[in-house]
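Troubleshooting entry. The earlier prediction with magnesium ion gave an output that would not parse, so I re-checked the input for stray whitespace and re-submitted. Clean input:
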Amino acid sequence: MPAHAPLAIRGVTVSYGEKPAVFSVDATFPAQSMSAIIGPNGAGKSTLLKAALGVIPRLSGEVYVYGQPVAKARARIAYVPQRASVDWDFPTTVMDVVQMGLYRKVGLLGRLGGQMKAHAQDCLERVGMADCAKRQIGQLSGGQQQRVFLARALAQDADLYLLDEPFAGVDAATERAIIDVLKLLKSEGKAIVAVHHDLSTVRDYFDHAFLINVRRIAEGPVDDAFTPEVLQATYGGRLASTHLDELSSPGTRR
Ligand code: ADP
Ligand code: MG
């Protein structure tokens, strides 16, 4: 029998009101792999990720993480939220943010020992933010904040990494730094699932693609699932068809 997938979504429907944001979705995200969740604005991408985390109620369906119901497997998941959704009005240092990733490890001991602090500092180092530990998070650039969120996810030592548009509004150097960290995680056997909006980098960055517009449109290895026909079905008239051909033909891989 094959090992359980890092993330299996089965018949999940989520609704905030009368109209479902995600309808009857099945998805299976593979191990040791970078998977992209792709779809237009309002397609339910963030909602699907939150459902996968088990933090919003489902109308129906189940989520399994390495074969376990998500409620029992939360400790194996790290989550980097969509940056725009986080508001840092209160003063918090970069080190505070990274240490939030450690609360599960700290557990009953209740306070962070020197070893935990060293671990947090090491995670900042991995994203190139070692010098910023004492800075206020609200004063950093968007790219720097995104690196800090990634450091927090790294601090958790999770097996499954869920990221919501990790490259939105970040500078090119940060995008490179983030992709390098994610590729290293993948080489260590971790599973990465990211909502991704830049269609031009899908082929460069990802192995597996899941396309959604409330319902599942397609899913599979990027070469099979990320096709002009599928993009047309996902985005409808919102992308010009010549643009679609350019984006999804294998010859354009950079
Ligand atoms: P995406 O991430 O693909 O842009 P979302 O999952 O954020 O889409 O949203 C899907 C749909 O659900 C949208 O129509 C959005 O307006 C709606 N929605 C998202 N979050 C909420 C919420 N907390 N309350 C009500 N409606 C919401
Ligand atoms: Mg979103």
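This one parsed fine. The radius of gyration is 18 Å.
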